[in-house]
Amino acid sequence: MTTRCDGVRAGFSLRCHGTLYRCLSCGAEGCAQTKPASCSHQRFDVSGRCTQCAAVGKREMLAPQTVGLFSTLMQDPP
Ligand SMILES: [Zn+2]
Ligand SMILES: [Zn+2]
C-alpha cells in the first residue's frame, strides 16, 4: 500500500508524492493541496475540506510509517 500520492501535479510532469489522507466521511483518498486542482489525485483543499463530499476536517493521514514522527502534527487546525 502506497502512502504517497501517485497523482501528477498540474502544470508539471512530476509525481505529486504528497501525503495521502482518507476522508472519514465518504472514504475517498487523496492528497491535500493549497490550490484547487493542483494534483490529479487531489482530494482535500487547503482548509481540509473533502472535494467529494465537502466534509471539513474529517480526514486521517495515511502514512503509518511517519505517524510516530509526526504524531504531534496529526491534529487538523481549528
Ligand atoms: Zn497529489
Ligand atoms: Zn469526503
Textual characterization of the structure:
The chain has 78 residues and is an all-beta fold. It has one domain (1-64). It has no helices and four strands. The chain has strands at 20-23, 29-32, 42-44, 59-61. The chain has a four-stranded mixed β-sheet, with no helix packed on it.
Strands of the biggest beta sheet: in what spatial order? 3-2-1-4
Beta-sheet strand percentage?
Answer: 15-25%
Secondary-structure element order, N to C: EEEE
| Overall tally of structural domains | 1
Structural class: mainly beta
Averaged pLDDT? 84
Bound molecules: zinc ion
Task: Give the uncertain stretches in residue-range form.
Answer: 67-72
Number of helices: 0
Estimated radius of gyration: 12 Å
> Total strand count, please?
4
Major sheet summary line: 4 strands, mixed
Share of helical residues: under 10%
N-to-C terminal Cα separation, in Å? 30 Å
Shape, please? Answer: globular
